[in-house]
UniProtKB/TrEMBL annotation:
The keyword Amino-acid biosynthesis does not apply. Residues 11-249 form the ABC transporter domain. It comes from Desulfoluna butyratoxydans. This is Abc transporter-like. Keywords: ATP-binding, Nucleotide-binding, Transport. The keyword Nucleotide-binding applies. InterPro entries: AAA+_ATPase (IPR003593), ABC_transporter-like_ATP-bd (IPR003439), ABC_transporter-like_CS (IPR017871), P-loop_NTPase (IPR027417). Pfam families: ABC_tran.
Length: 256
């Protein structure tokens, strides 16, 4: 299946409404994520950021609207097409979502054994490379319980990258990390963008991360239940006239 061509955005949302039964979470969402961007989904607590992520990665069907991966409408695609699309994305969940009974090597190797035709020796080489890429060389035989929270996030990132995805999705990657570990993770995300040329979508409310890594963004508002701003986070900080956006980006201390 040829999913993308030159000029196609890797990810596009049109006329999207998210709902749980009759309860609308967000409506009328429309945006594109350009190739190579670090795209931030931001907004206050309860606005639907993580719900939007679930819609983007095929875990929840929209009440209305479309999610396109390249030229393919995700929820109109056949199950076979959806499976192929899902192998072209990687997801880092808040907790890292590592299997506690498996070593870091086994966690990262799992998608390669499931979805690739590599030999065991090729998989070992790839896993060792991915772990080294996130600074975990030498930790392949450790269990998740034997490493720190920041290391778990990096191990989860190595697993998300196992199949060389076109798009990486991060759900609150800095959650639970101390400021130093959070900054290291931000630096790693920037390094991956430069070295791999990956398109990255990040759900976060952490201002330090938003301004450190974001190159484009959308702001979801819980009160109006729709997106009320989009663009580079620093441009929104400097130019937005919407008090809700400014309040969020300054934590209520507008010093522009």
């Amino acid at each position: 299946m040829t999913n993308t061509r030159v000029g196609d955005p890797p990810l596009k949302v049109t006329d999207l409404t998210m709902a749980y039964g009759p309860r609308v979470i967000q409506r009328d969402l429309a945006f594109e994520v350009a190739k190579g961007e670090i795209f931030i989904i931001m907004g206050g607590s309860g606005c639907g950021k993580s719900t939007l992520l679930r819609h983007l990665v095929g875990l929840k069907e929209p009440a209305r609207g479309k999610v396109f991966h390249g030229r393919t409408s995700l929820y109109d695609a056949s199950s076979r097409e959806q499976s192929a699309l899902m192998q072209r994305i990687g997801i880092l969940y808040q907790s890292g979502a590592l299997f506690s009974s498996m070593t870091l090597f086994e966690n990262v190797a799992l998608p390669l054994y499931q979805y690739s035709d590599y030999t065991a020796s090729e998989i070992r080489e790839l896993v060792m490379f991915k772990l080294a890429l996130v600074g975990l060389g030498g930790f392949e035989d450790h269990l998740p319980a034997e490493i720190s929270g920041g290391m778990k996030k990096r191990a989860g990132l190595a697993r998300a990258m196992a199949l060389d995805p076109e798009i990486l999705f991060f759900d609150e990657p800095s959650a639970g990390l101390d400021p130093v570990s959070a900054r290291r993770l931000d630096d790693l995300i920037l390094e991956l963008k430069e070295s791999l040329g990956a398109t990255i979508v990040v759900v976060t409310h952490e201002l330090a991360s938003i301004f450190a890594i974001g190159t484009d963004s959308v702001f979801l508002d819980a009160e109006t239940k729709t997106m009320i701003a989009s663009g580079h986070p620093r441009d929104l900080l400097e130019r937005s006239e919407d008090a809700r956006v400014v309040r969020f980006l300054t934590r209520g201390e507008d010093s522009r």
